[in-house]
């Protein structure tokens, strides 16, 4: 066994519905602007091909957590998303084979420091600081695809303090799941443990310390997190 200079970090993981086992997370890929209405609300062309950004594996947070309001922002946004959990490695996966690489599905929230993202866009700089911060990828328990099938329609929604803010349908995805998996695998080799956040419908908006975020995807599950006070 190798010896390490420092103790290895804990393995990032996501709960699995109905099981004490957990899904170890390797990497997190996120699809930008994958619902036409959301692309339009951000002033973009919904016909653009999909693009990806990443979050660190340890950005995942279980449903039920309290997430401190992050530093460097005064405009923290919610983005509800269907999450794809990869269970089989693949590079340059043909679209017709893509769903065979999916282990299961979950419900996630892509938390975004929107003011930092806007600044980065204007300066033509990377989005990392706006997307890839601590606890920025809350994810509900995963459900195996063997139980759910591969969803191509169904309500996806998010509420803040009980008021619905995002309300869409998976049928509105510009690039459906098989396309997303296939296109992502053109750039990187997907491996077991990878998560793909598949994009958010219209209605994104700001949350404040003390707000409770709830959301779900029909047939997949739900998520609930609270935004806490900033860390001292």
TrEMBL record:
Protein name as catalogued: Fumarylacetoacetate hydrolase family protein
PANTHER family xref list: ACYLPYRUVASE (PTHR11820), FLUTATHIONE S-TRANSFERASE (PTHR11820:SF90)
Pfam families per record: FAA_hydrolase
Sequence ranges assigned to domain Fumarylacetoacetase-like C-terminal in this UniProt record: 28-227
InterPro entries, alphabetized: Fumarylacetoacetase-like_C, Fumarylacetoacetase_C_sf
Gene3D superfamilies for the chain: Fumarylacetoacetase-like, C-terminal domain
MF GO annotations: hydrolase activity
Keyword terms of this UniProt record: Hydrolase, Metal-binding
């Amino acid at each position: 066994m190798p010896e390490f200079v420092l103790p290895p970090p804990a393995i990032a993981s996501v709960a699995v519905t109905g099981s004490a086992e957990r899904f170890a997370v390797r990497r997190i890929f996120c699809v930008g602007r994958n619902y036409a209405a959301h692309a339009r609300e951000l002033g973009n062309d919904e016909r653009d091909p999909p693009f990806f950004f990443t979050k660190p594996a340890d950005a995942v947070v279980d449903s039920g957590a309290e997430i401190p309001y992050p530093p460097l922002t005064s405009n923290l946004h919610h983005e509800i998303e269907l999450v794809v959990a990869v269970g089989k490695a693949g590079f340059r996966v043909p679209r017709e084979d893509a769903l065979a690489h999916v282990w299961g599905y979950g419900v996630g929230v892509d938390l975004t420091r929107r003011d930092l993202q806007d600044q980065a866009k204007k300066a033509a700089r990377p989005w990392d600081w706006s997307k890839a911060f601590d606890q920025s990828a809350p994810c509900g328990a995963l459900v195996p695809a063997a139980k759910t099938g591969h969803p191509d329609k169904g309500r996806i929604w998010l509420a803040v303090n009980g008021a619905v803010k995002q309300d869409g349908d998976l049928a509105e995805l510009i690039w459906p799941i098989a396309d997303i998996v296939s296109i992502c695998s053109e750039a990187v080799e997907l491996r077991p443990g990878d998560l793909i956040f598949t994009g958010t419908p219209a209605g994104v908006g700001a949350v404040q310390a003390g707000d409770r975020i709830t959301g779900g995807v029909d047939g997949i599950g739900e998520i609930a997190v609270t935004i806490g006070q900033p860390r001292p």
